[in-house]
């Protein structure tokens, strides 16, 4: 028996980030209902023009063909590609991806989104509010549905304040202080660093600096800071400072309550918050102090679900999230 | 008429760091009196075995031959090579350089020193005390003439607290905070960052992260923090924090007064302190609070002079600074 084939419109969502690419195809009128595929486990290459559009296209094409075959769809009506670095490194994608997706899969309407925007759409849908997305890095995005506001996301040397890399770096710095006998050191963090990296600490620079993925190496130590925090005041202080930075970023982007008094929604998303109450406790306290106007809600979905949802709204011609040249570029809409 | 030729013993000092290599040759009994040569303006390459000994040798050889010809010396009795990274990246130099210098120039006694040790010898000679060497990075070394103590110098991701890179990074982070509208931002630093880097700040990550010399780029902004400090409390706060870190590092390595009550000497050396009173004022206050037992003195000489002085003491068989496997390796002494 032939599979039941939907003849309606189909939409594609793509989520591209530091841990690889994922894609999902869904009926435009039921964006929660389609199959998803893990396209590749490595991130898309970054070259002189930023994120490499050919590299993304050649990884995406076979995965989308597989999804089309699974669903029996003949093509894609609308798509949303969310990518880490879209705002600052997305020129190549903005130049090349629309033509590729139109010619290869018939995509007529396309959204090119910063990963923070797809995280927002996944977490909060089209409500006014703010999200903080924190993993190795950290960025906050907020909107009143007229414009976007962004805070941080500037990378481990210029910001990403409160992120995994930020917490891990502060933890390793405290370990080195203890090794040196300087003020502000933490013996528990020193012990954990020696065990995790398998080296006396004077050899840690030689292990860290040659690595191309230094921010990820720093972030790998963040869970150790979380583990030490209940019994180590230095580690607890690092998490308190991170919580303050996260709340500052949220406060900088969160809109005012709407005219009818509805409070903006606020969601915390990303792998950092899996650290649990040792971090989310202080974050909740700092948010209550700095952003009492917002209502903290659980994220409804992830960035891939957000990308599919944006594509579905594009297909319906009813996207409420505001376009933005860097954060949410709409093509053919 | 033939030049007057000294027939006594000659010693060689070498200073290798981020801004190149310099060498100086001097009579062993008058180490202040010889000619110096700038060997190369670029730093010695770093490879898989650390600082590349062949690269250093091939740059050093013609410069030393020139110095020998200038002085009429027939060879070198003792030498001291001070190099940035000697402690952690010096395995290749320790393996190869002694044989090269013995076979090529007849060097019988050699000291392989961390640049902090030659800075110490240049600044304080062979007195007990401590130095803080701060430029792009920052390290503190102290000795009671029995052993060395080291603090920091772990690079821009693990420490170098209070250094040029540290101050510049804090300044740029404050600029990004102002750009975002986050707490803790500085509009004066934002304005200076836009002017210095010639870009709106959202494009700064794209200018910084592709650079191989990111710590130097960060440090290049430190003087701007110094310029803003008199009228900007955020910039002043950064310098106050840097001063505190410098004092903490000094306190961690400075020896106790000697048995006869002589206070240890303390010197601040390196390019960072050219920032002047805007930094040295707070550093003096923090040192007075944390390290009242030390006497702050002006550095007598630079690291190249320190290297020559160590070589002269080696030639005389009377080096008082203590040997150390990583910081001051003595060969043939």
What CATH calls the topology of the largest domain in chain A is Nucleotidyltransferase, domain 5
What is the average of the pLDDT values of chain A? 91
Poorly predicted runs of chain A: 1-6
State the secondary-structure class of chain A: alpha/beta
What can be said about the biggest beta sheet of chain A?
6 strands, mixed
Give a topology summary.
Two copies of one chain form a homodimer.
Chain A (H helix, E strand, L loop, with lengths): L9 E8 L2 E8 L8 E5 L5 E2 L2 E2 L1 H19 L6 E6 L2 H4 L1 H15 L3 E6 H10 L4 E6 L3 E6 L4 E5 L11 H17 L6 H11 L6 H5 L5 H6 L2 H7 L4 H21 L11 E5 L7 H14 L4 E2 L6 H13 L12 E4 L2
Parallel strand pairs in A: 1-6, 6-7, 8-11, 11-12
Antiparallel strand pairs in A: 1-2, 2-3, 4-5, 7-13, 8-9, 9-10
Helix pairs in contact in A: 1-3, 4-12, 5-6, 5-9, 5-10, 10-11
InterPro entries (chains A, B): ATPase_BadF, ATPase_NBD, Euk-type_GlcNAc_Kinase
Pfam families (chains A, B): BcrAD_BadFG (PF01869)
Protein name (chains A, B): ATPase
């Amino acid at each position: 028996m032939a599979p039941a084939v939907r003849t309606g419109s189909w939409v594609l969502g793509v989520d591209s980030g530091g841990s690889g690419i994922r894609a999902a195809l869904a009926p435009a009128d039921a964006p929660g209902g389609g199959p998803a595929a893990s396209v590749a486990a490595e991130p898309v290459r970054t070259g002189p023009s930023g994120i490499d559009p050919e590299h993304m296209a050649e990884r995406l094409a076979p995965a989308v063909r597989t999804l089309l075959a699974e669903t029996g769809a003949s093509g894609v009506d609308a798509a949303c590609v969310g990518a880490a670095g879209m705002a600052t490194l997305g020129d190549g994608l903005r130049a090349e991806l629309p033509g590729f997706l139109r010619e290869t899969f018939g995509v007529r309407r396309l959204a090119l989104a910063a990963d923070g925007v797809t995280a927002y759409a996944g977490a909060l849908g089209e409500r006014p509010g703010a999200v903080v997305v924190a993993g190795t890095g950290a960025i906050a995005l907020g909107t009143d549905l007229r414009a976007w506001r962004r805070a941080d996301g500037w990378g481990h040397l210029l910001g990403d304040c409160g992120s995994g890399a930020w917490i891990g770096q502060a933890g390793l710095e405290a370990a080195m202080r203890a090794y040196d006998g300087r003020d502000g050191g933490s013996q528990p963090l020193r012990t954990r660093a020696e065990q995790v990296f398998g080296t006396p600490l004077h050899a840690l620079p030689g292990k860290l600096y040659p690595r191309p993925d230094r921010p990820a190496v720093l972030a790998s130590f963040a869970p150790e800071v979380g583990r030490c925090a209940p019994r180590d005041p230095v580690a607890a202080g690092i998490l308190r400072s991170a919580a303050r930075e996260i709340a500052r970023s949220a406060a900088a982007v969160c809109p005012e309550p709407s005219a009818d008094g509805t409070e903006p929604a606020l969601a915390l998303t990303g792998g950092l918050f899996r650290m649990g109450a040792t971090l989310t406790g202080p974050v909740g306290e700092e948010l209550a102090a700095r952003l009492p106007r917002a209502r903290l809600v659980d994220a409804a979905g992830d960035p891939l679900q957000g990308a599919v949802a944006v594509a579905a709204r594009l297909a319906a011609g009813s996207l409420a999230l505001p376009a933005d040249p860097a954060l949410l570029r709409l093509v053919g809409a």
